[in-house]
Design a protein that fits this description.
By secondary structure, the protein is an alpha+beta fold. It is built from two helices and seven strands; from the N terminus they run H-H-E-E-E-E-E-E-E. It is elongated. This is Molecular chaperone IbpA.
Length: 139
Protein backbone atom coordinates (compact mmCIF):
# COMPACT_ATOMS: atom_id res chain seq x y z
CA UNK A 1 0.00 0.00 0.00
CA UNK A 2 1.23 3.48 -0.80
CA UNK A 3 1.85 6.03 1.92
CA UNK A 4 1.24 9.67 1.18
CA UNK A 5 3.17 12.45 2.90
CA UNK A 6 0.65 15.26 3.40
CA UNK A 7 2.93 17.47 5.51
CA UNK A 8 3.29 20.18 2.80
CA UNK A 9 -0.50 20.37 2.52
CA UNK A 10 -0.92 21.02 6.24
CA UNK A 11 1.47 23.98 6.05
CA UNK A 12 -0.72 25.87 3.59
CA UNK A 13 -4.25 24.48 4.12
CA UNK A 14 -6.52 25.16 7.03
CA UNK A 15 -9.33 22.83 8.06
CA UNK A 16 -8.25 19.78 6.05
CA UNK A 17 -7.49 17.67 9.11
CA UNK A 18 -9.61 14.76 7.96
CA UNK A 19 -8.13 14.68 4.44
CA UNK A 20 -5.53 12.09 5.38
CA UNK A 21 -8.11 9.75 6.86
CA UNK A 22 -10.33 10.17 3.77
CA UNK A 23 -7.45 9.21 1.46
CA UNK A 24 -6.61 6.24 3.66
CA UNK A 25 -10.24 5.09 3.77
CA UNK A 26 -10.59 5.44 0.00
CA UNK A 27 -7.51 3.32 -0.69
CA UNK A 28 -8.65 0.70 1.82
CA UNK A 29 -12.18 0.57 0.35
CA UNK A 30 -10.81 0.26 -3.19
CA UNK A 31 -8.82 -2.81 -2.19
CA UNK A 32 -11.61 -4.40 -0.14
CA UNK A 33 -14.54 -3.84 -2.50
CA UNK A 34 -15.29 -6.12 -5.35
CA UNK A 35 -16.97 -4.92 -8.50
CA UNK A 36 -20.49 -6.10 -7.64
CA UNK A 37 -22.82 -4.48 -8.42
CA UNK A 38 -21.43 -2.30 -11.21
CA UNK A 39 -22.23 1.41 -11.05
CA UNK A 40 -21.83 4.74 -12.86
CA UNK A 41 -21.43 8.21 -11.38
CA UNK A 42 -22.70 10.99 -13.64
CA UNK A 43 -22.33 14.75 -13.48
CA UNK A 44 -25.79 16.06 -14.39
CA UNK A 45 -25.09 19.76 -13.88
CA UNK A 46 -22.63 21.90 -11.94
CA UNK A 47 -24.04 20.79 -8.56
CA UNK A 48 -26.12 17.70 -9.43
CA UNK A 49 -24.97 14.09 -9.64
CA UNK A 50 -26.51 10.67 -10.30
CA UNK A 51 -25.31 7.27 -9.19
CA UNK A 52 -26.72 4.44 -11.30
CA UNK A 53 -26.29 0.87 -10.06
CA UNK A 54 -27.15 -2.34 -11.92
CA UNK A 55 -29.30 -4.27 -9.44
CA UNK A 56 -30.96 -6.79 -11.76
CA UNK A 57 -33.01 -9.35 -9.90
CA UNK A 58 -33.55 -7.15 -6.83
CA UNK A 59 -36.94 -5.76 -5.90
CA UNK A 60 -37.39 -2.26 -4.42
CA UNK A 61 -38.16 -3.84 -1.06
CA UNK A 62 -34.80 -5.68 -1.10
CA UNK A 63 -32.66 -2.54 -1.58
CA UNK A 64 -31.98 0.09 1.09
CA UNK A 65 -30.31 3.50 0.83
CA UNK A 66 -28.95 5.26 3.92
CA UNK A 67 -26.83 8.34 4.61
CA UNK A 68 -24.95 8.94 7.82
CA UNK A 69 -22.04 11.26 8.62
CA UNK A 70 -21.28 12.00 4.96
CA UNK A 71 -21.40 8.36 3.89
CA UNK A 72 -23.98 7.02 1.42
CA UNK A 73 -24.60 3.28 1.80
CA UNK A 74 -26.58 1.28 -0.75
CA UNK A 75 -27.23 -2.32 0.22
CA UNK A 76 -29.34 -5.17 -1.03
CA UNK A 77 -30.27 -8.52 0.37
CA UNK A 78 -32.27 -11.15 -1.44
CA UNK A 79 -35.24 -12.71 0.32
CA UNK A 80 -34.88 -16.44 0.84
CA UNK A 81 -36.36 -18.37 -2.08
CA UNK A 82 -37.83 -21.64 -0.88
CA UNK A 83 -38.29 -22.96 -4.43
CA UNK A 84 -35.91 -25.80 -5.18
CA UNK A 85 -34.29 -25.26 -8.55
CA UNK A 86 -31.84 -27.20 -10.63
CA UNK A 87 -29.64 -24.81 -12.59
CA UNK A 88 -27.78 -25.88 -15.71
CA UNK A 89 -25.97 -22.54 -15.57
CA UNK A 90 -26.35 -19.82 -12.94
CA UNK A 91 -24.86 -16.54 -14.14
CA UNK A 92 -27.19 -14.12 -12.37
CA UNK A 93 -25.80 -13.25 -8.97
CA UNK A 94 -28.32 -13.57 -6.18
CA UNK A 95 -25.99 -12.50 -3.40
CA UNK A 96 -26.40 -9.49 -1.21
CA UNK A 97 -24.24 -6.41 -1.57
CA UNK A 98 -23.19 -3.25 0.20
CA UNK A 99 -21.61 -0.34 -1.63
CA UNK A 100 -20.43 2.82 0.18
CA UNK A 101 -19.78 6.28 -1.25
CA UNK A 102 -18.07 9.11 0.64
CA UNK A 103 -20.08 12.28 0.08
CA UNK A 104 -18.48 15.70 -0.08
CA UNK A 105 -19.61 18.41 2.30
CA UNK A 106 -23.12 19.74 1.65
CA UNK A 107 -24.06 16.88 -0.72
CA UNK A 108 -27.41 15.25 -0.01
CA UNK A 109 -29.61 12.62 -1.63
CA UNK A 110 -32.70 14.14 -3.22
CA UNK A 111 -34.37 11.15 -4.88
CA UNK A 112 -34.03 7.46 -5.69
CA UNK A 113 -35.82 5.43 -8.34
CA UNK A 114 -35.59 1.98 -9.83
CA UNK A 115 -36.43 0.99 -13.40
CA UNK A 116 -35.36 -1.80 -15.74
CA UNK A 117 -32.97 -3.29 -13.17
CA UNK A 118 -31.17 0.04 -12.62
CA UNK A 119 -31.21 1.95 -9.34
CA UNK A 120 -30.83 5.72 -9.80
CA UNK A 121 -29.78 7.83 -6.80
CA UNK A 122 -29.97 11.59 -7.35
CA UNK A 123 -27.64 13.86 -5.38
CA UNK A 124 -27.26 17.61 -5.15
CA UNK A 125 -24.61 19.82 -3.62
CA UNK A 126 -26.12 22.79 -1.81
CA UNK A 127 -23.48 25.25 -0.71
CA UNK A 128 -24.73 27.42 2.18
CA UNK A 129 -24.86 31.14 1.58
CA UNK A 130 -22.15 31.71 4.21
CA UNK A 131 -19.76 29.45 2.27
CA UNK A 132 -20.23 31.09 -1.13
CA UNK A 133 -17.54 33.48 -2.37
CA UNK A 134 -18.12 37.12 -1.53
CA UNK A 135 -16.23 40.33 -2.05
CA UNK A 136 -14.80 42.08 0.98
CA UNK A 137 -14.69 45.87 0.80
CA UNK A 138 -11.61 47.62 2.07
CA UNK A 139 -12.32 50.53 4.43
Amino acid sequence: MRQFDLTPLYRSAIGFDRLASMIDDASRNEQAQNSYPPYNIELISEHAYRITMAVAGFDKSEVSINTEHGMLTVSGSKKADETERQYLHQGIAARGFERKFQLADHVRVTDASMENGLLHVELIQEIPEAMKPRAITIN
